[in-house]
Design brief:
2 copies of one chain form a homodimer. Chain A is of the alpha/beta class. Helices cover 46% and strands 17% of the residues of chain A. Chain A contains 14 helices and 12 strands. A 6-stranded parallel beta sheet of chain A has the order 2-1-3-4-5-11, sandwiched between helices. In chain A, strands 7-6-8-9-10-12 form a 6-stranded mixed beta sheet, sandwiched between helices. In chain A, helix 1 crosses helix 2, helix 1 packs across helix 3 and helix 2 crosses helix 3. Chain A starts with 7 loop residues before the first helix and ends in a 7-residue tail after the last strand. Chain A binds a DNA duplex through helix 2 and helix 4.
Chain lengths: 329, 329
DNA sequence: TTGTACGCGTTATCAC
DNA sequence: GTGATAACGCGTACAA
């Protein structure tokens, strides 16, 4: 019953050809007689043959693996951040029906040794970089050529990102249309290009609308979102709207707003960025700039899957404002 | 510079022994002269030799891979559920310093074909099952022996879970101590053993305290949490506390409670289960039964890593009540 | 205890 | 166009 899994040799024998020919058929190489190709393909499907990826990896020297390289404080914070769940899901989507595996690498912040360990692994199809600084990207590119970055980009590395500026602009305009005129912003870490883009979008929109910018710095975390909100309320007790650089930050802001006795959205409207599960789960539900993280990750992955990848590709995906109660009329 | 990666043969040559001996040293096999072992180990470290996992996999017929098998509606819902982020982080923790990879398999609900596809992959060290029904587990066990289940268990499969009953009991007692006497519960799906355990814990605690049970059914989702809360408020407008089978459900309940004009915790106290990022991010922050998901996943993974795994191991991890504002004094 | 020789399943380089 | 044959790097009976 438990028949040994079929091999290339089995197929060759059944088709009456050599293993070389079968290999050529499998890899869609030219230089095979049509009738031979036909017969081999039939045998393959009747036998249910599937090439052994391990043997192939040994022979070619490169495995069918895509690596996700994430820089985070530690594994815990990687697991707790909803963003990475979406990234993983997106990569898996790009890998569907592909027999390519996903390998996850969490590089702990400020641990160059770990980064080096990552590089010593056997080479794969390439790496998806998330939250990787240009310096580390430079380091990595010494051992691996095929890389693509989500959001953060280093020169020479193709990057896929969301239209951060546009997304924030639409959010600010939305708040303006609601009658809000004292619209504050809590930024993300300025080492992060996405955060920079969102900040720029805020200042741009505010200027265009003839309003006065009110800002506080943060680092994408809930904690700094809360602190920043306290500072903002102290210095600008009359603000009537807050835009946060990400949903996590927005949840912190929401908690402080409620504590301070403000009603959301009646007194202060609140808008986040990401449209993660946190936005939909908040009370009241958060209006948020939707970012197609899954799509972005899937596209980045598919680029890696290509034999010859265009090193200069840079795609920006459109965002869309998901309007919920936290900024209702 | 770019010297070819070191191989077993290189080590053997440098140490003046045969490849077999080097292989034995690497795999810690007995029957090697101490001095030979010593010398080989030195050469290995000076050369910086690392065994090629691909070649090893081909030779042994089994790769250094742990599979995560998750049954979910689709990839999107996998990525959106904070629980899986923690599971992945836990597995990665269990795999630290191990060179073992993680392969993620999202089996779409009601797609037996997909489940079969999972089974056709090359065998690895074993599989961590999450949310897998006993029937599917039975199916899978036909092609793979080494499996361990998180939460849900099928006969013959070792399972790691949290002390669901105890966790809920402590939550209910906490609410009772706060003076709450009309404590409702929103259950999870009864196909899920964890949900069953939490329901049992609720009924048990309620009975011990001499209270009357007030319950509604749910499926761990935010949506059903909201619906169930509406039903509960309609039939029991005087309830003063709700326990939810998971945090997602609790966020739905919180939204409806706020909509209905109830104050949390003043009018109705709320407690969730999981202590996920959703609990800490909610407004007000949710009291929740902390479940050491990462630890559980790491332990399950380490069991898989053992050469001979005890098939009858069943561990239940203690929970701890994380008290926050939603059930404050 | 140590070494020889072969197998794992595929790709790649040659001749033919 | 096709088919031997040698890698790829390692595990492992078996013999020495």
């Amino acid at each position: 019953m438990e028949r040994r899994t079929q091999t290339l040799a089995d197929v060759a024998r059944a088709a009456g050809v050599s293993r070389s020919s079968v290999s050529r058929v499998i890899n869609r190489e030219p230089g095979v007689a049509p009738e031979v190709r036909q017969r081999v393909e039939e045998v393959i499907s009747t036998l249910g043959y599937r090439p052994n990826p391990v043997a192939r990896a040994l022979a070619t020297g490169s495995a069918d693996v895509v690596e996700l390289v994430v820089v985070e404080r530690d594994r815990r914070s990687f697991g707790a951040n909803p963003h990475y769940g979406r990234v993983v899901a997106g990569i898996l989507e790009g890998l569907a029906d592909t027999d390519v595996q996903l390998r996850i690498n969490v590089v702990e912040k400020g641990a160059p040794a770990a980064a080096l360990a990552v590089a010593t692994r056997s080479p794969g199809l390439g790496s998806v970089l998330v939250n990787v600084s240009p310096a580390l990207a430079e380091d990595l590119s010494r051992d691996r050529e095929r890389m693509v970055s989500m959001g953060r980009s280093a020169p020479g590395i193709p990057s896929f990102t969301a239209e951060n500026e546009n997304g924030v602009r639409s959010a600010i305009r939305h708040l303006y249309a609601l009658g809000r005129r004292r619209i504050a912003a809590i930024h993300g870490p300025m080492k992060n290009p996405c955060a920079v883009g969102r900040r720029d979008g805020y200042f741009d929109a505010i200027a265009q609308l003839g309003l006065t910018p009110i800002t506080a710095d943060g680092d994408f975390s809930r904690e700094t979102g809360a602190e920043a909100t306290r500072r903002l309320l102290a210095t600008h007790p009359d603000l009537d709207a807050i835009f946060c650089a990400c949903d996590q930050t927005a949840t912190g802001a929401l908690q402080v707003l409620m504590e301070s006795g403000r009603r959301v959205p009646d007194d202060v409207a609140l808008v986040g960025f990401d449209d993660s599960v946190l936005a939909a789960a908040a009370s009241p539900p958060l209006t948020s700039v939707h970012q197609p993280v899954e799509q972005i990750a899937a596209s980045a992955t598919r680029l890696l899957l290509q034999r010859r990848m265009d090193t200069w590709q840079r795609d920006a995906f459109p965002t869309a404002l998901a309007i919920r109660k936290s900024s209702a009329g």
